[in-house]
UniProtKB/TrEMBL annotation, chain A:
Family matches, as NCBIfam families: ATPase-IIC_X-K (TIGR01106), ATPase_P-type (TIGR01494)
Subunit structure comment from the entry: The sodium/potassium-transporting ATPase is composed of a catalytic alpha subunit, an auxiliary non-catalytic beta subunit and an additional regulatory subunit.
Protein name as it appears in the record: Sodium/potassium-transporting ATPase subunit alpha
Membrane topology: Multi-pass membrane protein
UniProtKB/TrEMBL annotation, chain B:
Described purpose of this protein according to its UniProt entry: This is the non-catalytic component of the active enzyme, which catalyzes the hydrolysis of ATP coupled with the exchange of Na(+) and K(+) ions across the plasma membrane. The exact function of the beta-3 subunit is not known.
Biological-process GO terms, alphabetical: intracellular potassium ion homeostasis; intracellular sodium ion homeostasis; potassium ion import across plasma membrane; sodium ion export across plasma membrane
Membrane topology designation: Single-pass type II membrane protein
Species name: Oreochromis niloticus
Lineage, opening ranks: Eukaryota, Metazoa, Chordata, Craniata, Vertebrata
Record protein name field: Sodium/potassium-transporting ATPase subunit beta
Length: 1077, 278
């Protein structure tokens, strides 16, 4: 038996995923308690019988979340060992061993070269594999901080007895009791509650605690009062309820399963690297096979052909490059960690850089996740309170007598209080016991009027009516401050319209005035305005009870109200909001100028969401939604052309009715979008929609409800302080300071590393040509081998490494935050232009430099170039020991091999020399080195390091035996200098042409003839995309949203049918964007 | 407008892979028009021509600096190697089958053609036992004669089969030519057979001596007809040596020349195998 769901899950993965993506199927909230009891065969007083509980436990399995599947360590290790270029190198190594085996079997004294090379290749693969594995393991350790979120104990009632059991043993139908501070052990249908409030913020994103009661208040199970959810917290009060779902079937469990079941696509950089590996492998295999066949045709033996094949593979594969990439990414990850972006997955470092859309959660990410008083209305005037985190905002006029009264009401009619022992903490940071709005008031008053406790001590509370949903007010009666005044002070706060109803006068400039129609209208306007800002508004009023009716010692009865609660004096309104973080508007602006679309996705109300969106600039000033236009023109919403509105606010319930096409239209045609009241499933659909349009999506969020979207996103960014464990688990990156602004840093670093990786790869790939060409000439022209496999490895894994890594430290050439995000379908890490420059141009010059050194050495030792062609057969003949050179001298095999190895060394040194120039030209893509400067100290160190290493390999005693490298005469170092110089001059000239002709690639008609000349010189410039290419779909999202919504398509609202506005053109910069000029 | 765009995008998706090879609408081949390809090819043609020119220039400059007579560096060939003729390190033959050893005999015969007395009438008479120094003066150096007759039994004149028919084969040894080499002492060749009892050997010229008058060598251009001195060894094999593989090692002795290098097994010495089948 066990978990009866799992087999089904395995059978139809996608179908099951679609099931999960649908809304929560809970219906119990609409049933009466009796029906629920019947359904679960339980009793509302006695609870389950032990036998039934055991039976259910057996049927449903324990009440725990299935942990996300993990990949075994050895699989990860093998992936590193056999992924990437490793297969190619393994092939090389196996061929080496094979060649050696054949030699050993056929020859008496087999040369150890092949065995040696095979061992070296194996070592290279294993060492780089281990290196990558440990890098990965290091970064994935962060994941292990995921804690078990199932509560330890639960109080259940079985057979009428309260028992404390392990929460894992709770089954559906159990009667459960929870109290303030408990974690809810399962999804429960509340049967009775006393002042029970739960914090659903991690599930729904609402920042304030919700009260729970047995009544069904909403069709949506997530919004109804009578369901409490697994792993949310009970903040206060007590409740009793029947368990309706356990384990993975709970709402939270579904989200967790949905999250862990989501297949995340490859990171953009992984795609790029794979693409690049394909190119290189393709070239290697093509060249290898071609020359293998050619060698056979030319009459070489099989063995020789195989040895050629090995040489070509080794020369083609940039062995050190993947390690270089890993190191570069690690360096950036470290740099980002310093700036409070902790990267869990190394490859995610770059993803932020290519991000084109950010879907941000509101609560906690954009906002401070703390209700704060934002506005006040008194003296018929709206006053703005300071909502900034550091109290740097403007203060309002506090001198008015009305304000004193208002603050007194707010302080007295308030049950919240600071928790003890926080006197040294800043007021805004103190912990408060009490609900969110009351704490907001408490902090506001404490900030502006001093200690609330003293005020409360002076005005002793005599009686109190707490807030309830029928009255919609809260009231308390206090003694006055003045000991001679025996009157009582009645203070009341509550929903503004209810308060107004109870008032007959209003306080203006400290004087009571009758409440006339004019004032009522003023009140209405203020109320509407504050409400329109998305703020929660409370009304405040007071009354000094007449002494004659209520003398000192009057027994106030709060149950059966025996005192006046109307004809009060209205004092003012106060409105609260969870204000945006100070750094957010600036960060949003930066994202926008970087071409990144910021979408707000929140579980909160549309009005609040819109207000915050406007506050932080997600909806920029002057942009209107369809509704705004309708209101301004005073016409119905349906008559507004949706294309006129750049911004839009979409309600979750509308989203449910949208087809995929409509969704795409919205995402495509609006630049400023806010999704409100969205469920976790809808967040996922939004992310998928963006990805379907070819965007690379970053999602930020902190709650459990965000985690599916976090996982699905190309990069999920969780909050380090307020984030739930589930969200941190699902994310790729964690903002340690919860600050949205840190994302901008991430984008900048990501873009920089992409540029710099390009440079690194261009640098490393260039030396492939001087590595391959010796082999090709060796085979075709039959000259002695100019460069051996060991020396090739010395370049790839020795001298090229530090300079390539040093390019990761290059500073940006232009303002990378002013350009569009790269288009993943067109701006490749390695494209034909980079290959063309690296292989076709610079690489060729390098090869010539190497060959020149080779010919110089042979000629100066007696073998003139004219004699070399065709000499190979004799040269490599071991039994031929009197080979004659151009001067008539005769050479033994060993003597001429020493010359050959000296040539290898010289070729190697020449590559180092030409790589100096290559390194300097790779520093910049279009700026001259003289503009960019040589400020990269690591790069200068790299230049010296590679030179020192080359000298060491050449001159260290014993190298002739170990690596067969021989000391060079000093003059031989200079052979490649002219070529090194040529590379520098050539590339500076190329960049000059590029700077003079900024058109080229950037013209809209990119194939026009005029574009061609500079086109050739363009290697890795990010072309500014003709706007029409911007939305070429990258790949279909793997998980298509199931069109259960299709039935609605017949009722397509007209405005959406006409909404096929042109593709957005606005954000892309003009062809000659500033950063290119 | 939007819908046409949509359609276009759609179409693009459908035929994109075909278009990437040849796009009939724009005439693009592999994503470029013919003129674009032509420009690229032209660029590369010019570029590579320039590179070839540059390479040729540097090579020409380098070759200008070289001396025609003597290579710039001779430190990679400080010592001569020792090689044998016939040019095989595995001399196996059936002494009674003339076809079997014919290749060896022919090889020796053709090798010795240069040493025919008739070829050496122009050569100067040198003083034996002394270096024939010709520094200064003319660039073309005189040559000391080495006459084939001095090889006596192994000259191929009296015994045209070089002893192969009788199972007592001749092997010629020569020291590699090295410009300016002047061996100190009196060089001679000594061969040994790794075997329980020694095999008799006969050296020509006597004692396997290489006369110092053949040194130094002045290089191919100056010393065009230089006669490289030879030493012949006749292995006087007996019946019990037949059908066995004999490892023969010959060394240059009596000089400062190296003959025991660890790495180079042919420096001043040579090891070869002889097997005579009856």
């Amino acid at each position: 038996m066990g978990n009866d769901r799992s087999p089904k899950k395995k059978k139809g993965g996608t179908k099951d995923m679609d099931d999960l993506k649908k809304e929560v199927p809970i219906t119990e909230h609409k049933m009466s308690v009796e029906e629920v009891c019947r359904k679960f065969q339980t009793d509302v007083v006695q609870g389950l019988t032990n036998a039934k509980a055991a039976e259910f436990l057996l049927r449903d399995g324990p009440n725990a979340l299935t942990p996300p599947p993990t990949t075994p360590e050895w699989v990860k290790f093998c992936r590193q060992l056999f992924g990437g270029f490793s297969i190619l190198l393994w092939t090389g190594a196996i061929l080496c061993f094979l060649a050696y085996a054949i030699q050993a079997a056929t020859e008496d004294e087999p040369a150890g070269d092949n065995l040696y090379l095979g061992i070296v290749l194996t070592a290279v693969v294993v060492i780089t594999g281990c290196f990558s594995y440990f890098q990965e393991a290091k970064s994935s350790k962060i994941m292990e901080s995921f804690k078990n979120m199932v509560p330890q104990q639960a109080l259940v009632i079985r057979e009428g007895e309260k028992v404390q059991i392990n929460a894992e043993e709770v089954v559906a139908g159990d009667l459960i009791e929870v109290k303030g501070g408990d974690r809810i052990p399962a999804d429960i249908r509340v049967t009775s509650a006393h002042g029970c409030k739960v914090d659903n913020s991690s599930l729904t994103g609402e920042s304030e605690p919700q009260s729970r009661s047995p009544d069904c208040t909403h069709d949506n199970p997530l919004e109804t009062r009578n369901i409490a959810f697994f792993s949310t917290n009970c903040v206060e009060g007590t409740a009793r309820g029947i368990v309706i779902c356990t384990g993975d079937r709970t709402v939270m469990g579904r989200i967790a399963t949905l999250t862990s079941g989501l297949e995340t696509g490859k990171t953009p950089i992984a795609v790029e690297i794979e693409h690049f590996i394909h190119i290189i492998t393709g070239v290697a295999v093509f060249l290898g096979v071609t020359f293998f066949i050619l060698a056979i045709i030319l009459g070489y033996t099989w063995l020789e052909a195989v040895i050629f094949l090995i040489g070509i593979i080794v020369a083609n594969v940039p062995e050190g490059l993947l390690a270089t990439v890993t190191v570069c990414l690690t360096l950036t990850a470290k740099r980002m960690a310093k700036k409070n972006c902790l990267v869990k997955n190394l490859e995610a470092v770059e993803t932020l850089g290519s991000t084109s859309t950010i879907c941000s959660d509101k609560t906690g990410t954009l906002t401070q996740n703390r209700m704060t008083v934002a506005h006040m209305w008194f003296d018929n005037q709206i006053h703005e309170a300071d909502t900034t985190e550091d109290q740097s905002g403007a203060a309002f006029d506090k001198s008015s007598v009305t304000w004193l009264s208002l603050s007194r009401v707010a302080a007295l009619c308030n049950r919240a209080q600071f928790k003890a022992g926080q006197d040294s903490v800043a007021i805004l940071k103190r912990d408060v016991a009490g609900d969110a709005s009351e704490s907001a008031l408490l902090k506001c008053i404490e900030l502006s009027c001093g200690s609330v406790r003293m005020m409360r001590d002076k005005n002793k509370k005599v009686a109190e009516i707490p807030f309830n949903s029928t009255n919609k007010y809260q009231l308390s009666i206090h003694e006055t401050e003045d000991p001679n005044d025996n009157r009582y002070l009645l203070v009341m706060k509550g929903a503004p319209e209810r308060i107004l109803d109870r008032c007959s006068t209003i306080m203006l400039q400290g004087k009571e005035q009758p409440m006339d129609e004019e004032m009522k209208e003023a009140f209405q306007n203020a109320y509407m305005e504050l409400g329109g800002l998305g703020e929660r508004v409370l009304g405040f009023c007071h009354l000094l009870l007449p002494e004659d009716q209520y003398p000192k010692g009057f027994a106030f009865d709060t149950d059966d109200v025996n005192f006046q609660t109307d004809n009060l004096c209205f004092v003012g309104l106060m409105s609260m909001i969870d204000p945006p973080r100070a750094a957010v508007p600036d960060a949003v602006g930066k994202c926008r100028s970087a071409g990144i679309k910021v979408i707000m996705v929140t579980g909160d109300h549309p009005i609040t969401a819109k207000a915050i969106a406007k506050g932080v600039g997600i909806i920029s000033e002057g942009n209107e939604t369809v509704e705004d236009i309708a209101a301004r023109l005073n016409i119905p919403v349906s008559q507004v052309n949706p294309r006129d509105a750049k911004a839009c606010v979409i309600h979750g319930s509308d989203l449910k009715d949208l087809s995929q096409d409509q969704m795409d239209d919205i995402l495509r045609n609006h630049t400023e979008i806010v999704f409100a009241r969205t469920s976790p499933q809808q967040k996922l659909i939004i992310v998928e929609g963006c990805q379907r349009l070819g965007a690379i999506v970053a999602v930020t969020g902190d709650g459990v409800n965000d985690s599916p979207a976090l996982k699905k996103a190309d990069i999920g960014v969780a909050m380090g302080i307020s984030g739930s464990d589930v969200s941190k688990q699902a994310a790729d990156m964690i903002l340690l300071d919860d600050n949205f602004a840190s994302i901008v840093t991430g984008v900048e670093e990501g873009r920089l590393i992409f540029d710099n990786l390009k440079k690194s790869i261009a640098y490393t790939l260039t030396s492939n040509i001087p590595e391959i060409t010796p082999f090709l000439f060796f085979i075709i022209v039959n000259i002695p081998l100019p460069l051996g496999t060991i020396t090739i490895l010395c370049i790839d894994l020795g001298t090229d490494m530090v300079p390539a890594i040093s390019l990761a430290y290059e500073a940006a050439e232009s303002d990378i935050m002013k350009r569009q995000p790269r288009n993943p379908s067109r701006d490749k890490l390695v494209n034909e232009r980079l290959i063309s420059i690296a292989y076709g141009q610079i690489g060729m010059i390098q090869a010539l430099g190497g060959f020149f050194a080779y010919f110089v050495i042979l000629a100066e030792n007696g073998f003139l170039p004219s004699q070399l062609v065709g000499i190979r057969l004799n040269w490599d003949d071991r039994s031929l020991n009197d080979l004659e050179d151009s001067y008539g001298q005769q050479w033994t095999y060993e003597q001429r091999k020493i010359v050959e190895f000296t040539c290898h060394t010289a070729f190697f040194v020449s590559i180092v020399v030409v790589q100096w120039a290559d390194l300097i030209i790779c520093k910049t893509r279009r700026n001259s080195v003289f503009q960019q400067g040589m400020r990269n100290k690591i790069l200068i160190f790299g230049l010296f390091e590679e030179t020192a290493l080359a000298a060491f390999l050449s001159y260290c005693p014993g190298m002739d035996v170990a690596l067969r490298m021989y000391p060079l005469k000093p003059t031989w170092w200079f052979c490649a200098f002219p070529y090194s110089f040529l590379i520098f001059v050539y590339d500076e000239a190329r960049k000059l042409i590029l700077r003079r002709n900024p058109g080229g690639e950037h013209t809209i008609d990119r194939w026009s003839t005029f574009a061609q000349a500079p086109h050739i010189f363009h290697l890795f410039l990010p072309p500014v995309i003709p706007s029409s290419a911007k939305h070429i779909s990258r790949c279909p999202a793997p998980l298509k949203t199931k069109s259960a919504l299709k039935q609605f398509s017949s009722q397509l609202p007209q405005r959406l049918k006409t909404a096929k506005a042109p593709l957005q053109l606005s954000t892309s910069t003009c062809p000659l964007s500033p950063h290119l000029l | 407008m939007a819908s046409t765009e949509d359609k276009a995008a759609n179409k693009e998706n459908v035929s994109s892979w075909k278009d990437s090879i040849y796009n009939p609408r724009t005439g693009e081949l592999l994503g470029r028009t013919a003129s674009s390809w032509a420009l690229i090819l032209l660029f590369y043609l010019v570029f590579y021509c320039f590179l070839a020119g540059m390479f040729a220039l540097t090579m020409w400059v380098m070759l200008l600096t070289l001396d025609d007579y003597v290579p710039r560096y001779r430190d990679r060939v400080p010592e001569p190697g020792l090689v044998i003729r016939p040019n095989s390190l595995d001399i196996t033959f059936n002494k009674s089958d003339s076809k079997n050893y014919r290749t060896y005999v022919n090889h020796l015969e053709s090798f010795l053609q240069r040493y025919n007395d008739s070829m050496q009438e122009n050569n100067a008479d040198c003083i034996p036992g002394e270096y024939y120094m010709q520094d200064g003066g003319e660039m073309t150096k005189k040559v000391c004669p080495f006459r084939r007759t001095s090889l006596s039994l192994c000259s191929g004149l009296s015994d045209t089969d070089f002893g192969y028919q009788e199972g007592k084969p001749c092997v010629l040894l020569k020291m590699n030519r090295i410009i300016g080499l002047k061996p100190i002492g009196d060089p001679y060749i000594n061969c040994t057979v790794k075997k329980d009892h020694p095999v008799q050997m006969h050296y020509f010229p006597s004692e396997g001596r290489i006369d110092k008058m053949y040194f130094p060598y002045y290089g191919k251009k100056a010393h065009e007809n230089y006669m490289q001195p030879l030493v012949a060894v006749k292995l006087l094999l007996t019946k019990e040596d037949y059908n066995k593989e004999l490892a023969v090692e010959c060394r240059v002795e009596g000089t400062n020349l190296r003959n025991n290098d660890e790495r180079d097994k042919f420096l001043g010495r040579v090891t070869f195998r002889v097997k005579v089948v009856e």
